[in-house]
Amino acid sequence: QVQLVESGGGTAQAGGSLRLSCVVSGTDFSRESMGWYRQVPGNEREMVAQITLNGGTAYADFAKGRFSISRDNAKSTVFLQMTQLKPEDTAVYYCKVAFEDYWGQGIQVTVSS
Predict the structure, then answer these.
(1) Taking residues 32-42, what's their average pLDDT?
(2) pLDDT score, position 11
(3) Phi first, then psi: what are they for 97, rounded to 5°?
(4) Residues with Cβ < 8 Å from 110, sequence gap 6 or more?
(5) What SS3 class is residue 100?
(6) Cα angle: 10, vertex 62, 9; to 5 degrees
(7) 10-13 and 107-112: which strand pairing?
(8) DSSP per-residue letters across 40-82
(9) DSSP secondary structure string for all residues of 2-50
(10) Calpha distance 8→80 (Å, rounded)
(11) Residue 41 pLDDT more than 90?
(12) Most Cβ neighbours (<10 Å): which of 29, 78, 82, 94?
């Protein structure tokens, strides 16, 4: 059974930083591309960043220059480093196995102005 467990969310001030982690089990993590998504109530879930099994990355326009996705295959973990946070980054953040329908439970990120 594939499981994804996010951690590291919480509240930050505008301009601050947070680092999200997602530990993956039940699959060969090193062979999976991974993604981070976010959702605001009433809105559709949107892609934030993706990382391929070879370490290639892609970002949504709003994340470029502020967020960084990385992975540690030895720890089966994918990270999302978020800097220069804005109130509009407030959302529930989810990690996902990129090409499979496996999602984490989601973690709240709140940015106060």
Answers:
(1) 95
(2) 97
(3) -70, 120
(4) 10, 11, 12, 90
(5) coil
(6) 10
(7) parallel
(8) -TTS--EEEEEE-TTS-EEE-GGGTTTEEEEEEGGGTEEEEEE
(9) -EEEEE--EEEETT--EEEEEEEESS-GGG--EEEEEE-TTS--EEEEE
(10) 9
(11) no
(12) 78
